[in-house]
Amino acid sequence: MADISTTLAGVKLPNLLFNASGVCCQTEADLKLMVESESGALITKSATVEQRDGNPAPRYTPLPNGIGSINSMGLPNEGYEYYLEYAKKYDYNSEKPLFISLSGLSLDDNVKMCKAFVDAKLPCVLEINYSCPNVPGKPQMGYDMEAMEKSLSVLAPLIKKPFGIKLPPYFDIAHFDQAAAVFNKFDNLAFVTCINSVGNGLAIDFVTEQALIKPKDGFGGLGGLMVLNTALANVNAFHRRLPGKQIVGVGGVVSGKEAFLHVLAGASAVQIGTMLKEEGPGVFARIAKELSDIMVAKGYKTLEDFRGKVKTL
Ligand SMILES: O=C1NC(=O)NC(C(=O)O)N1
C-alpha cells in the first residue's frame, strides 16, 4: 500500500479524497454516509443564511456514455445554522476533518455566517464558494476579480485562521494571472479548490428535442469526465502561481488515474462530485485503492513524490 495521506490548511487527512461540496452532504443523513465512507474528509453543502429549496426539478442528470453530468440545483440547503449545529456536534477526535462550505448571496451574508463559525471556535475549516453558476440573477463572484478582492479583504481577517475558496474554471491565462494576484494578497487563504462546474452548459435530448433539466431553460453546470482537462489546467495554473498555498483538485475524477493526474498537476487533496453522485460513497474505497496501486506500479511512496511534477516538453 502506498501512503495517500495529506494535510490541507494545516489539518491531516488520512487520505486525500473527499466529496465535492454539494454531493452527499446536504443533510445529516448524507453526512453520516460520508463519515462512514472511506473518504479522508467531508465537506457540507454550500450554506446560505436562510434555508433554500433550490431550483425546480429535474435539476440534475448524468449525461450519456459516462461523459459527465449537468446540474442546476440552485443552492438547496438547510441554512447555515443547521451546519453550524452539525459542526458543534462533530467528533473532531475522529481522523476525518470537517470542512464547511459557505455561499452567501451577499458579502453581508458571508460576514454573518463566517462570524458565527469564528465565534463558535470550532476546528472545522471554511471553504467560501465563489462559484455557484446556478442561482438565477446571481453572476459568479469568481469571475469578478474586484468583487472577490473586496470580499476577501473583509472575510480573510475575520476568519483569521487558514481557509479556502471554491473557484469557477478560468479559460484565459490573463485571468489565472489576475486571480492569483488577488489571492496572493491574503496569507491565511490557505487553499483554492479548482474547479466548480463549468457554468451554463446545455444538454439536449436528441429524440425528444428537449433540454434535460428544467431550470434556466436547461442551462446548468457541467461536471464529470468531460471537464477533467479544464480542471487539471486550473489546478496546475494556480499551483504555479500561488507559492505557499495549496490546491484542492476537483473535476473529472472517475478513477485512481484522474486522481493521480490531479496530484501530478499540483493538487494536495482531491474532491469527487459526479462519480460520487452516480456510484455512491463506495467510490472512495475504490479510487483510493486504484491510486495506491498506480503509485506502487510507478514506484511512488507518498503524494509528495510526484505532486506538481507534471513534465513539460
Ligand atoms: O456551487 C455550485 N455548483 C454547482 O454546480 N451546483 C451547485 C448548486 O447549484 O447548488 N452549486
TrEMBL record:
What this protein is called in its record is Dihydroorotate dehydrogenase (fumarate)
- Gene name tied to this protein: PARPA_12635.1 scaffold 45263
- Where does this polypeptide localize? Cytoplasm
Q: Locate the Dihydroorotate dehydrogenase catalytic domain: which residues?
A: 5-295
Q: Which reaction does it catalyse?
A: (S)-dihydroorotate + fumarate = orotate + succinate
Cited function = Catalyzes the conversion of dihydroorotate to orotate with fumarate as the electron acceptor.
UniProt keyword Kinase, yes or no: no
Give an example GO cellular component term for this record: cytoplasm
User: What does the record give as EC number?
Assistant: 1.3.98.1
